[in-house]
Design goal:
Arc Repressor Mutant, subunit A; single chain; mainly alpha; 87 residues; elongated
């Protein structure tokens, strides 16, 4: 059975799929595509991991923790300065 959605369309719909806003018909086609496309399954898993790591890195807990000892002080100061400009 040939999937209705292309792999490119799968990538375009990922955000909507994860936030639950993908309409039922598209969601069924999305999941039907996943059933026959191992590369998209791998991409989906990578996407989930990336989103989880991004959320973790932006959490208030991780923002308060000290950076690793091998991070150059100049880099730390540049990041802190950029954050101040962004707010």
């Amino acid at each position: 059975m040939e999937p209705f959605l292309t792999c490119r369309e799968m990538a375009d719909f990922l955000g909507d799929y994860f936030d639950g806003s993908l309409p039922d018909g598209q969601k069924r086609e999305f999941e039907r595509h996943l059933a026959v496309c191992p590369p998209c399954i791998h991409y989906l898993e990578s996407y989930k991991t990336t989103v989880a790591l991004a959320k973790q890195s932006c959490s208030t807990t991780s923002a308060k923790s000290a950076p690793p000892a091998d991070v150059p002080e100049a880099l730390i100061q540049a990041i802190l300065a950029a954050r101040k400009k962004a707010t």
